[in-house]
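[step 3/7] fold_predict: job queued, chain A
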Amino acid sequence: MICKKKTIVIALSFLAGTAIAQKIDLSKALQEAATQTRTMLTSIAAMPLSDKRLVAPRTEEKGQLKMVGGKDWTSGFFAGNLWFLYEATHDEFWRSKADSFTRLLEDQQYNGTTHDLGFMMYCSYGSGYKLTRDAHYKDVIIQSAKTLITRFNPRIGCIKSWDHTGEYPVIIDNMMNLELLFEATKLTGDSSFYNIAVTHANTTLRNHFRNDFSTYHVVNYDTATGKVLKKVTHQGYADESAWARGQAWGLYGYTMCYRETHDPKYLQQAERIANFLLNHPNMPADKIPYWDYNDPKIPNVPRDASAASIMSSALFELSKYSKNGKAYKDWAQQSLESLVQNYRADRGTHQGFLLLHSTGHLPAKSEIDVPIIYADYYFLEALMRSKDIKK
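[step 4/7] structure written:
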């Protein structure tokens, strides 16, 4: 154990010794985000939304705003963005808009066909409840958690990710949905939500990670026995490669699990993932990852600003818990500075999205080098966490 801890400290020592956190004008960055989000509200209002199922922006496609229905896994992020702006400004305009876009998702609390209710409902209703303590939001959060746990298989020890295969696939992204269950535990006192979240986290820790603490994207289980059948990728370069956003989900997920449980093995796992990422030889100097750390065509491949945003947000939080806190905070600050300086959309452009140069699903040739709403969400969260840490 001592050797493992020492390895992490040594590997990060160059960061702690040389990193100089860049100064970000947080007030200005948040003001710019608010101005740009007003552009997005205008873009949404100008759309011929005859199809009422379209409730949230997702990306820009061929110069046009692409909206999605409530069942899309990204549907809760824009409401979350609006709640961040309300938190930052205390302006009732943002509270009203956030409430409106949040309530468009209400039916999804009963949607048992997806594992992504955490993204959909916690980023929207959860963010709103944190700021308003609205009793209705609380009820929706609890029902959403009840719906999510119907996808849990105790034999396997995980919440099922997809229904379109005959096996039992679990993706690393699913770690992010556990926060909804931890919140439901606090709201109800019902430990069953907590126990399922912890069981899922433990199973994922045991089966998803390689010896270098990079993560597979997908682990397929045998439904009858619970045994691992195969470990593959869906959105990465190859089964054995390190898909950038997947690594970021793992870092964020185990940092969050430590916050909610105080279990030291989750802190250790988050530190190990951070060690892999921050010291990776293919990490660009500006700390905005390539879409996959093992794409052989690096550096001539797309970046993923969404992965950078998730990592920055996670590292700001991890810095509060870890002995390596200064190195994590400095790294997160420098990555955030890169996003602010070089990856933001110009004011009034790109339908109001905040960040450019994200990669959604490169193998499927989908959403490559475009703005994506979840990049904006974690960018705003990173800004807010940076602000809190500076206090």
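[step 5/7] annotate
The CA atoms of residues 290 and 298 lie 8 Å apart.
The first helix runs from residue 2 to 18.
exit 0
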